[in-house]
Write a structure and sequence with these properties.
Elements (H helix, E strand, L loop, with lengths): L1 E6 L2 E4 L4 E9 L6 E7 L6 E6 L5 E3 L7 E6 L4 E6 L8 E9 L2 E4 L3 E6 L1
Parallel strand pairs: 2-11
Antiparallel strand pairs: 1-3, 3-8, 4-5, 4-9, 5-6, 7-8, 9-10, 9-11
């Protein structure tokens, strides 16, 4: 069994910062890809950032330059540093890990950015 526990969400003013954390437990290896998705009210879930096992990263255009994804393989944890937050960043953020056909999601953490 693999479980993902997210933390770090909250409410901030525009221009503020938050750091999200997603800790994985169970049978997980460094070869698993880790990423963050978000879902705004009334919107579909969208990709925010991906950190592959090879160390490459990919960001949504809307967050590039403001968000940074990182991972600590020793702790089986992936982070999302969110700077210069905008109201449009508001939503529920979900951690996801994947390997081949295996896919696991975190429970989600609320991020609210006020204008």
């Amino acid at each position: 069994q693999v479980q993902l526990v997210e933390s770090g969400g909250g409410a901030v003013q525009a221009g503020g910062s938050l750091r999200l954390s997603c800790a994985a437990s169970g049978s997980i290896f460094s070869s698993w890809t880790m990423g963050w998705y978000r879902q705004a009210p009334g919107k579909q879930r969208e990709l925010v950032a991906i950190f592959s096992s090879g160390g490459s990263t990919n960001y949504a255009d809307s967050v590039k330059g403001r968000f940074t994804i990182s991972r600590d393989n020793a702790k089986n944890t992936v982070y999302l540093q969110m700077n210069s937050l905008k109201p449009e960043d508001t939503g529920v953020y979900y951690c996801r890990i994947s390997l081949a056909s295996y896919l696991y999601w975190g429970q989600g953490t609320q991020v609210t950015v006020s204008s």
